């Protein structure tokens, strides 16, 4: 085989079981099994998540290898998500990586899930060269569990400039959707509805000091808006679905953009990236494009495949760690609250 370094990436931090093959920085495959079982509960049930990971992990890895056209003996090292995430879920991917690594006699590389979301910007495709961010750049990482602005100075230097003091942006989307009776995860539903509506309801946007985010006030205000509306009209949600979604989305985006502009102004950095599940939001993507034009930013928006949880981002992170020798090669147990 012509490749020097072939990484098998394994991701299992929450409710997606994913495996990917990254060869010399190029994605050969990226396979994800999602878990529909949580929909009926309106959120991820940890015990069910780890059981589903156990069921999915072997077939997912098998397909990822076949898709990449490689066999187990071609793998140089295995990258796995060490954290942050749900402990039971992390244990499935981590233990599987450990067993496979021992069996094959190849090194293991632990990867931080949140750093991996950022590193997704460096994944190269087989048939086209992707433009990648130059260091240093700012990255707004917005997922179901995190909302942070990071200053990224190299593949292994991530500084948290600001983060949320309560809910994450994805959580704000999901909780608003739940109040509207939409299925979990609600972010994509709000996104779709917002596209058809107008932000005609007034919702508060917090003005936290510095680069700190807060979404809990918005959630409460949205709850009251819906409760008051239902008192007047039992069909309030149904009659105003699109406008409610557009209003809550506009408020979330306004807060995200305000802090990102501030971070760029304070640091003088105009190379800006976004990462994490919420970066799939169409409203956010177009608002960022407008802002980038206005402030002369160089903007990096991941393709949809790399916005939500995937193993290609774990593979590329492990690849850079392997290149710089920044790994122990041994299994390091999961850490549910691993910091950036
Ligand atoms: O990064 P991710 O897949 O998992 C975590 O690490 O949390 O992010 C999942 C989050 C969920 O809260 C989901 O509702 C949100 O990303 N999300 C979206 C969209 N797609 C996913 N939020 C808003 N608009 C979207 N299109
Ligand atoms: Zn994630």
Task: Give a structural overview.
The protein has 340 residues and is of the alpha/beta class. It has two domains: 141 residues, ATPase, nucleotide binding domain (Nucleotidyltransferase, domain 5, 2-Layer Sandwich); 169 residues, ATPase, nucleotide binding domain (Nucleotidyltransferase, domain 5). 42% of the residues lie in helices and 19% in strands. The chain has a five-stranded mixed sheet with strand order 3-2-1-4-5, with helices on both faces. The longest helix has 32 residues. Bound molecules: 5'-O-[(R)-(carboxyoxy)(hydroxy)phosphoryl]adenosine (KG4) and zinc ion. Zinc ion binds next to helix 3.
Key traits:
340 residues, alpha/beta, Nucleotidyltransferase, domain 5, 2 domains, 5-stranded mixed sheet, binds 5'-O-[(R)-(carboxyoxy)(hydroxy)phosphoryl]adenosine
What is the fold's blueprint, element by element?
Blueprint: E1 6-11, E2 16-23, E3 26-34, H1 46-68, E4 77-83, H2 87-104, E5 108-112, H3 113-119, E6 137-142, E7 147-154, E8 157-163, H4 169-179, H5 187-194, H6 216-232, H7 236-267, E9 271-275, H8 282-295, E10 298-300, H9 312-324
Helix pairs in contact: 1-2, 3-9, 4-6, 4-7, 5-7, 6-7, 7-8
Residues 113, 117, 143, 276-277, 309 line the site of zinc ion.
Write a compact overview of the structure shown:
This protein is an alpha/beta fold. It has helices at about 45-70, 85-105, 115-120, 170-180, 185-195, 215-230, 235-265, 280-295, 310-325, and strands spanning about 5-10, 15-25, 25-35, 75-85, 110, 135-140, 145-155, 155-165, 270-275, 300.
